[in-house]
Design goal:
By secondary structure, the protein is an alpha/beta fold. 46% of the residues lie in helices and 10% in strands. Helix 1 runs antiparallel to helix 4 and helix 13 packs parallel to helix 20. The N and C termini lie far apart (57 Å). Bound molecules: 6-O-phosphono-beta-D-fructofuranose (F6P).
Amino acid sequence: MTHPTMPTLPERPAWTALRAHFAELERTHLRDLFAREPDRGERLTAEAVGIYLDYSKNRITDETLRLLVQLAEQSGLRQHIEAMFTGEKINVTEDRAVLHVALRAPKGDRIKVDGVNVVPAVHEVLGRMGEFADRVRAGRWLGHTGKAIRNVVNIGIGGSDLGPVMAYEALRHYSARELTFRFVSNVDGTDFAEATRDLDPAETLFIVSSKTFTTLETMTNASTARDWVLAALKDKSAIARHFVAVSTNAEAVESFGIDVMNMFGFWDWVGGRYSMDSAIGLSTMIAIGPDAFGELLAGFRAMDEHFRTAPFEANLPVLLGLLTVWYTDFFGAQTQAVLPYDQYLKRFPAYLQQLTMESNGKHVTLSGTSVDYATGPVYWGEPGTNGQHSFYQLIHQGTELIPCDFIGFTHSLNPLSASSGANHHDLLTANVFAQTEALAFGKSAEQVAAEGTPDWLVPHRVFEGNRPSNTLLLERLTPHALGTLVALYEHSVFTQGTIWSVNSFDQWGVELGKVLAKKVAGELSAEQDPELEHDSSTNALIRRYRAAARA
Ligand code: F6P
């Protein structure tokens, strides 16, 4: 937490020391670091809650780590972690506690917000979700015509979509295959049309997921869904069988027409991007069942405990967070790639984009002053090996330094071997290790020339190397493993935000566009040509659209 007395980041002694240290280390190659230390690849590793982290292929020494850990201490990370876990209102700009960790707290825990223990309410909702999920899964939740629900469509956006869709894709292996799951988020009508075109309304359940229940996209899609159901079933009372809501806003849920008996609540101390393990995960629970959802929560909880108690030197989220600060602020890295080598994790980078960038895309500190250092980098990625045949060229030979997190598993959920003898999973994993090796060590001009490459071609074929990466190795992609992975990044984001002294839990930056869109929407659909008072570009675009749309 930034106390008024805490020095600003550039004033913290470890920061100054890191500057001097960076100047010494900047030109050192990973080849030299590995040559100096034969056991580096075993030593610069950490393991906890089923995740083995090899961070040896980073441009760091023991001294770097020592200084980064000092920086975390001087930034009040230990106290800030405790403040979060004990329900202090660390989201100061919204005057809210930040308690996604309470969503996975065991039943007997006590975590108070405004003097009230929130854990019993969490378990009460989990219990209701479990009963409901069991009914749908068993075909005992009947639609209006008496047919069992077979299709579940989650309507939501941002944190009310990205977590559910990512978790569904990630845990598809464990899902009830007889049910169909769809996710509608975009206000573009195509999203709704394509998601529902082959579904029978009599067998379809909509989960309207919105923390506020006011979000334009979600409310528009929910209204369209209501029309779609009523057009087929022709009876308003059908809504109760075909719609449930997940929200903190009971009043708005009711006025939309959803019975609050069919509402699953959560609380203002759960940020949208931290909500996939709240009732927002209802579609996940229907897909994988309450027991597996419990394992997911146990994975989150295991990482929470590790984050709260492990020394910073061996603390996975702290290490990842500190490395991100190191590359962002000292090497000037503007982006960070996350590369899961598991097809089921195909939406994980998209999920992380909201988690990381909505959290730490800030340029003002908690005390309201502009930062004079870089904060949240752009996160991006694609599953391997596909990304290798697309953008890895730039990571290997481009002019940007892009730290990478490689995520791999020792066991596949679909262990296939081709008759040619090729084992899919060995090949997949070989690529993880090969990529991190190539990035770190590259290929020198001498090596390229020694292969008989003509002189003129040598520069094109040289790999400088010295490109940093982490390797995260897990056993297999289970619900528990997914929980640990998501919590790992949640707490890495927390670590970064604490060091940068920004509020990782508000998102004022999305407001202006929303407000302007409402105004423009009125102007696009007005009967008479409206008086336009925007800039000349926006005015011209509006006129052009109106003319074309009305032609
Ligand atoms: O994009 C801004 C945002 O407020 C996100 O933080 C949030 O996850 C998303 O919109 C959806 O909000 P809601 O769940 O209230 O519909």
